[in-house]
């Protein structure tokens, strides 16, 4: 059963609870730095210019996916000027990726289906980029065998997929709890199940259900009383949760993509892949371990201690 934030004090204690305004300010750190500093501001500026056009968020998702594929194709050919243009295309794709969400909120068209479609667009763009970088390295490093380079590209792709998968879960889990005191993951799953029951579910909706359920299985820690929202809200003022929120922002694979884009700009594609792979592994492992310690394991230990203390008091 889902718990509201108002129930948190009875389940996990409220000693570290902070105000709603402070929680929402803290939640801003869940967006990665480059998105906060320039991509979302650019997307909001684009909304003022192009928001009146008859374009839906889904259209922007299709456009940014195609722009990403075009950038990856330029990387594969890989002349000096093509790499510069590819960098511009790939960064434009990132701004448009922010813009589809900005447009959806502005036109009140946000939906679980749209979010899943955006995730699929991101996946297609990243797959194309990994293929483009693999072809580039093979063509521009004489004596390089395709097998090892392709295997390395596949490892990078898997690392990026896991980072993106984990980041999406943690951002929704922490973000919805901090901003609104609700469980966005449970809410979206219920909307998708409702579509299935009504017979109106598309393949995208069913993929979204599979995506969300695997996120919960892989990344959800065990909360005190089973209360995810209450645990996050009640501990939002602790140094460990504040650090965790900032770490999740750095976990975002968009940070690794920025490293790849810079490497492409300067023609150091393989070096950028190596750096991004190391970055992704360290951030994914750190976020997974810290989340369980901050929101799960430590809390469960506290609950057991509290129960034992209560029992001891009763015996006395």
TrEMBL record:
<dbReference type="GO" id="GO:0008654">
    <property type="term" value="P:phospholipid biosynthetic process"/>
</dbReference>
<keyword id="KW-0812">Transmembrane</keyword>
<feature type="transmembrane region" description="Helical">
    <location>
        <begin position="243"/>
        <end position="268"/>
    </location>
</feature>
<feature type="transmembrane region" description="Helical">
    <location>
        <begin position="150"/>
        <end position="170"/>
    </location>
</feature>
<protein>
    <recommendedName>
        <fullName>CDP-alcohol phosphatidyltransferase family protein</fullName>
    </recommendedName>
</protein>
<comment type="similarity">
    <text>Belongs to the CDP-alcohol phosphatidyltransferase class-I family.</text>
</comment>
<keyword id="KW-0472">Membrane</keyword>
<keyword id="KW-1133">Transmembrane helix</keyword>
<dbReference type="GO" id="GO:0016020">
    <property type="term" value="C:membrane"/>
</dbReference>
<dbReference type="GO" id="GO:0016780">
    <property type="term" value="F:phosphotransferase activity, for other substituted phosphate groups"/>
</dbReference>
<dbReference type="Pfam" id="PF01066">
    <property type="entry name" value="CDP-OH_P_transf"/>
</dbReference>
<dbReference type="InterPro" id="IPR048254">
    <property type="entry name" value="CDP_ALCOHOL_P_TRANSF_CS"/>
</dbReference>
<feature type="transmembrane region" description="Helical">
    <location>
        <begin position="120"/>
        <end position="138"/>
    </location>
</feature>
<feature type="transmembrane region" description="Helical">
    <location>
        <begin position="60"/>
        <end position="77"/>
    </location>
</feature>
<dbReference type="InterPro" id="IPR043130">
    <property type="entry name" value="CDP-OH_PTrfase_TM_dom"/>
</dbReference>
<feature type="transmembrane region" description="Helical">
    <location>
        <begin position="274"/>
        <end position="295"/>
    </location>
</feature>
<keyword id="KW-0808">Transferase</keyword>
<dbReference type="InterPro" id="IPR000462">
    <property type="entry name" value="CDP-OH_P_trans"/>
</dbReference>
